[in-house]
Amino acid sequence: MNEREAREAVVRTAVALADQGYLAGVGGNLALRIDAERFAVTPSASDYYAMTADDICVLRLDNLEQLAGGGKPSVESGLHARALQARPDCMASVHTHQPVASAFTLLDRPLPMHGAEARRLIGAEVPMCAYAPSGTSWLASNVGKRVRADLNAYLMRNHGAVCLGATLEDACTVVRLLEQEAIAWFRRALAAQPDNRLYRQTLEFLEEDLR
Ligand SMILES: [Zn+2]
Known about the structure:
Elements: H1 3-19, E1 29-33, E2 38-41, E3 57-60, E4 66-68, H2 77-86, E5 92-96, H3 99-104, E6 111-112, H4 116-121, E7 125-126, E8 128-129, H5 137-144, E9 153-156, E10 160-165, H6 168-192, H7 197-210
Parallel strand pairs: 8-9
Antiparallel strand pairs: 1-2, 1-5, 2-3, 3-4, 5-10, 6-7, 9-10
Helix pairs in contact: 2-5, 6-7
The protein binds zinc ion (ZN).
Zinc ion binds next to loops.
């Protein structure tokens, strides 16, 4: 993939994810490997609907040196670089603040995958990576050390998710399946514990959103 194609694909995907509510405003960001040395990443705190291919930053994978792009690269560039380096089979890394999977990160536990498609495309169980503030190398390290060849999604405590894929399309499928699995988890949990306020409020929020 050439640099221009990568930048255009990143813009297109960011708008599609924002349309589906997975980025929660300016939250979330995404990265696409261009070649062995470089990756394209969304700029920091940008309006995805106003963003053009020229705004997409190009960084070196090994040291995050900025090679192109007018804006300041996403604060999670180090997280994406770490994930892409740990997974040479993955071209894309998407960080979301998707509503229900993010609510799940308030719980300190892994999320098991039940559906056949989720198990095949994500893995058996999505781990909960330890908390660290956004944009820190500490957070990149907490996620990076959990990255495995047979797992395409990672939850970050009190924050959101990182979804990996061989392509941007695959990473977006992982985002969608992860959200479905988180919704299904809350539904099962609420059925088992009808008085649990977090479970109930998460699902109420979801229903309002769908209305
Ligand atoms: Zn974030």
